[in-house]
Amino acid sequence: MRPGTILHLGIKELRGLMRDPALIGFIIYAFTIAVYTEAKAVPETLNNAPIAIVDEDNSPLSRRIGDSFLAPYFKRPVMITAKDMDDRMDAGVDTFALDIPPNFQSDLIAGGAPVIQLNVDATRMTQAFSGSGYVQSIVTAEVSDFARTSTAGDTPDVDLALRSRFNPELNQMWFASVMNVINNVTMLSIILTGTALIREREHGTIEHLLVMPVSPAEIMLAKVWSMGLVVFCATLFSLVIMVQGLLQVPIEGSLVLFMAGAVLHLLATTAMGIALATVAGSMPQFGLLLMLVLLPLQILSGATTPRESMPEVIQTIMFAAPNTHFILMAQGILYRGGGFSVVWPQFLWLGVIAAVFFGFSLGGFRRSLR
């Protein structure tokens, strides 16, 4: 293999990509707008939910409950009367309306079981589903704490203090933004290399390459390094400008170490794109294969749900996927600030998987050229 030939063939691929405005627009969208909207619109996150409180008790405990609804989960509670509650709910002003009955504090101290009414606007389905649990947890915590401090002899000897590491505010935007970038690395690297090969076949230029003094390995390496370079630069831009800059998500570890791991991951996924393109006869068939491959890769790799919550059979199978190790490596570096001594097993596995995928794809590519 001649490095000069691989370099010039890769430059040819980059020129071909620059003449495809649809792919260029898709790359820009995936690493900018898609990252921002995915991070800002995480459905499980309760953000600035409007809440109103009908305080018919006007006691220290009821005021304490009202002061416990804080940003960014809730807007500042609005104190209303019982007559205004239904009208505000009908108008869609409030998502939650909490009604604290009279003598609530005195009944609680007397050992009774007073009831607080929570009215929820269920037309706002996302906020209603997650916010009801938030409200219940906040009220229960405040009432339990008040009962412990106001009842003599009931103070426990041991208390549990919860501290969230790496994400103290439990802000899901921090998780969603980085995971979206990582998913885009896998998706774009497979798509770009696959479309580069299919474009050669559909335009008839693959036959031109075959009559030239170039080998299949040189053709494949040129597509791998050129398309991998595009995804590499887009990933670095997205992490620095979009994630750290615009979204202000803290990156704890070394970006250099992460991008080094991304190179190994790109070697495996670009080779996977070549393998899928050799199987597909046309671009529509390649798109159908992508649906069968990308969905399991992204859903079962740990980017959406933790691997520990999956069946052991699925965990074992997905251990052969490159993005499973890439996600473990990214979480260890970008979230926890781990160094190479922490993530070296993921680097090792990515290197082995990349070598196996590249060898398999090269064999398939040679057979397809014959």
Structural commentary:
The chain is elongated, with a radius of gyration of 28 Å. The protein folds into two domains: 3-42 and 171-369, no CATH class; 51-150, abc type-2 transporter like fold (3-Layer(aba) Sandwich). The protein has helices at 3-18, 21-31, 33-40, 60-67, 82-90, 104-109, 125-150, 172-203, 205-210, 216-246, 255-279, 283-300, 312-318, 322-335, 340-369, and strands at residues 51-55, 78-79, 96-100, 117-120. The protein has a four-stranded mixed β-sheet, with helices on both faces. Helix 3 (33-40) packs antiparallel against helix 8 (172-203), helix 8 (172-203) packs antiparallel against helix 10 (216-246) and helix 8 packs antiparallel against helix 12. It contains 15 helices and four strands. It has 370 residues and is mainly alpha-helical.
Give a quick rundown of the structure.
With 370 residues, this protein is mainly alpha-helical.
Order of helices and strands: HHHEHEHEHEHHHHHHHHH
Q: What would the average pLDDT be, to the nearest integer?
A: 87
Query: Rg to the nearest angstrom?
Result: 28 Å
Strand order of the main beta sheet, please? 2-1-3-4
Low-confidence stretches: none
Structure classification: mainly alpha
Q: Helix count, per DSSP?
A: 15
Proportion of beta-strand residues: under 5%
Number of strands: 4
In this structure, how is the largest beta sheet organized?
A: 4 strands, mixed
